[in-house]
Amino acid sequence: MKVSIKSRIVTVKGPRGEITKPFNHKAIDIKILDTIALKKKGKYVRLRMWNASYKQAAAVTTFKTLISHMITGVTEVSIYKSKIALITP
Fold first, then answer.
1. Nearest CA among 29, 68, 22 for reference residue 46
2. Which fold would CATH assign to domain 2-75?
3. Between vectors from CA 5 to CA 4 and to CA 10, what angle results, nearest 5°?
4. Top-confidence residue, 20 or 44
5. What's the rounded Cα separation, in Å, for the pair 72 and 68?
6. What's this model's pTM, rounded to 2 decimal places?
7. Nearest-5° Cα angle at 79, 77 to 81
């Protein structure tokens, strides 16, 4: 899996395809950094927002979740079974 970031446009490439999503509507820093921890090796995505109010800072968690779902989407098989409910008056 490969994650690339250019001008707040995040692209995730994996074995199941590629997903590109722009995050340029909010002033947020998105960077790919190396892990410094001893037990973990690899890279991670860091999201930072400067001088934000509480509601604006909530966008950081939303962006984190969106990127996490993008990674899941290109690595795992997703099966959705729709359920039909019959409502009678």
1. 29
2. Outer Surface Protein A; domain 3 (3.90.930)
3. 90
4. 20
5. 6
6. 0.77
7. 175
Contact assessment for residue 36 and residue 16, using Cβ atoms and an 8 Å cutoff:
no
CA distance 73 to 75: 6
Q: Where are the domains of the chain?
A: 2-75
Tokens of 32: 């790919």
Per-residue pLDDT tens over the stretch 31-43: 988 888 777 788 8
Average of per-residue pLDDT across 52-60: 88
Q: Does residue 73 contact residue 16 with C-beta atoms inside 8 Å? A: yes
pLDDT cut 70: percent of the chain above it = 100
Q: With residue 13 as reference, give the H or E element that holds it.
A: strand 9-14
